[in-house]
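Q: A reviewer asked whether we had any structural model of the full assembly, not just the individual parts. We don't, so I'm hoping you can provide one. Inputs are below.
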Amino acid sequence: MTAMARLCWFVLLPAVVPMLAIGARLDARQERDAGGFKAPTVALERGRAVYVLNHCHFCHGVDLTRATMGAANLTQSPLVGADEDGNIIGPLVKAGLPNLQTAMPSYAELTPEEIVDLARYVHFLRQQARFKELSALADTPAGDRAAGEAWFNGAGSCRSCHSPTGDLAGIGRKYDTATLRGRLLRPGPTMLREGVSPTTGQAAHLRLLENYTPANVRDLLAYLGEGAR
Amino acid sequence: MIPTRRDLLRALAGGPLLLVAQRPAPMTSAVTSVSGVVFGVETFSFHDLPPAGDPQLIPTIIRNLQTLGLAECEIMSGHIEPFASVMTGWWVQSRRSPDFARRREEAREWRLTVPMTYYRDIRRRFEDAGLRIYLYNVNFNETFTDAERDRTFEAARELGAEGFSSSTVLSEARRLVPFVQKHEMFVAMHNHNNLVDPDQFATPASFETALAMSPRFFVTLDIGHFTAGNNDAVAFIRQHHGRIVNIHVRDRKRNNGPNRPFGQGDTPIADVLRLIRDNRYPIRCYLEYEYGSFRPSVDEVRTCFDYCKRVLAS
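A: Here is a predicted structure for the entire assembly that you could use as a starting point for your response.
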């Protein structure tokens, strides 16, 4: 090894590595701006632009979790939970809510494409927030196994894809409660990536995720964790 | 005033803030004026502040004002009190929250027991920086008790505010009449654009009803909301300029339309500013940024201010 090479290895490298690490941290920091974190895909980033540039975040929060000024909490709103690609959100934001104390403005000029982008971004934020909320559920009170079974076979429509004696057989032995809850809430990838769309099943779970009550989750865990052993 | 031995002992027991708070407040006459028009900011404009009660909240507001070269502000109660303003009952929707009653009671208890040195210290910090809290923005509403109203007026005086700007309603304004008389301070009613509820401030008639209740009632005219309610801000200012303390400068579209960057909405910002300039109306112009951006709030407030400067230069 030449003297110059030794200089590189022993002097410059220790100096460069921390710089690279700092650079990576800076890149990570740059992912956030006054409108929250940048979205993971181009389409969602378009939705974020609609959300932020129409100042939705000032009342509903950059991540939907800190609604203020009397605005609806969109992580819990049944209207958002029932929306598909803006079919409910769209007419509402275009009309506004002029009868509120501090009226929600009318966004009559939004195009159909912007409405879809906005709605998908709101659903994305809601899924993040609901996952965080439901993942942090305390284990008590314990769920009701019978209620979980009823929900599995009824309102949740889980039976249409899953079976406790088929693909889910023994799942209660395979995973601990925390892991099982995580897989129940979001069986797909933890973060969306450009060019990778959720499968039909994953999309259905994301829809469920937006609408689970804490009781639903506890009941399903009781049913799957104890029952499907 | 020379502190007595008892004052010093009390100050030492209470920590260094008490010593500072008891000294006479320095007079400040800083004003930001453009072509004779006085500018300030509504602190609501700073959307990226630390949360209520955070020790960095007031220093950040002060730093923002200094960065912008704005000497005075209308400060929201949520930036003074150590709890979110939703706990104080203005937003009717927030009263439906299951824990609202408990949180409201906690806020009331705080207001009734906090020593006035708390407010004096905030005033001192502004004045030491050459700044002034001109208006205290408190949204009076029916969840206030009379004792709470009294304490809030005392708090405003300790902050150095001339009076209040308040998002309130006509029914609450009636309750405030004896308080403005007793404390010899004014309340300026701030409008939104709810045209459905006749108790709300949203139209010229709603303001005129309140102005007739007390000579100590004035107007904080939000020209953006006023325009969104399809009212004529220029005509209102021409008619009522003697009873308007300040305007909130923002740009909204008509028909309950959204906020837009200055110059892109329907609000006659330029006409209003020139009207105030040309007639030397003593109406303060407070910037209010709410149109949404990926940039920090302070940068957008500067953009708003620059727009106003350009308008007044022409």
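A: Points you may want to mention in the reply: Residues 3-30 of chain A form the longest helix (28 residues). The longest strand of chain A covers residues 32-33.
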